[in-house]
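Sat 14:20. Reprocessing the chain from the morning session after the first attempt stalled halfway. Input below, unchanged.
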Amino acid sequence: MLYDMPTRRPKDRPKHLPLKVKYDNSTDWDIAYVDRSICPFLILMPLYDLPDLLTGEVTTENRSAATRRLWIRGGGFWKDRDAHLQWLCEALRARQVMPTGTISTESFCLTIAKIAHSFAVAELGWGSFTPFVCDMIMKRDVDNRAEFIGGGEGSHEPSTGLHELGFVDCSDPSLIAVKVHLFGVLGTPTYYVVVGQKTLPSAEV
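Finished this time. Tokens:
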């Protein structure tokens, strides 16, 4: 919604977003639903180690999409964020407001996998490699996420393009890996997906 990205389900986009508010007569946080055009929010992205197929190591602690590390930034198009939060306090008659945000790490990893796989097919052609993440995508099974998807060490310098896609070198030249950098203008993390293995040319008979 921040960049009015296209969607197949535009009617599912909420017109109002939740905002934590604390009123003068209360010590607890309440929730107010504010028009999305003026509601600040948090952008959350999971942080992982690089995928095992890139490092040659084997992740033992957590191989799924779950993570305890998140990249978190405030979202909104206001030059003076503090002034906007103060304006919201006055408009809502609250003494404090706090943006909120949620993320489904499973859905996020599946989205990254779809983007990377589609990019590789578009650039290299169907049948040019043996895909690794198709089963993960179709079965929505990210229990082995660490093998193929990782990255997101932290913040990057903001890029000039909204999104960035490209191939990355692998220590194993038979592998194909794609870097996915979404909303790079915000300095977001870069993710890496090992999408498959190059198909060897058939031997001539």
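The chain is about 20% helix and 25% strand.
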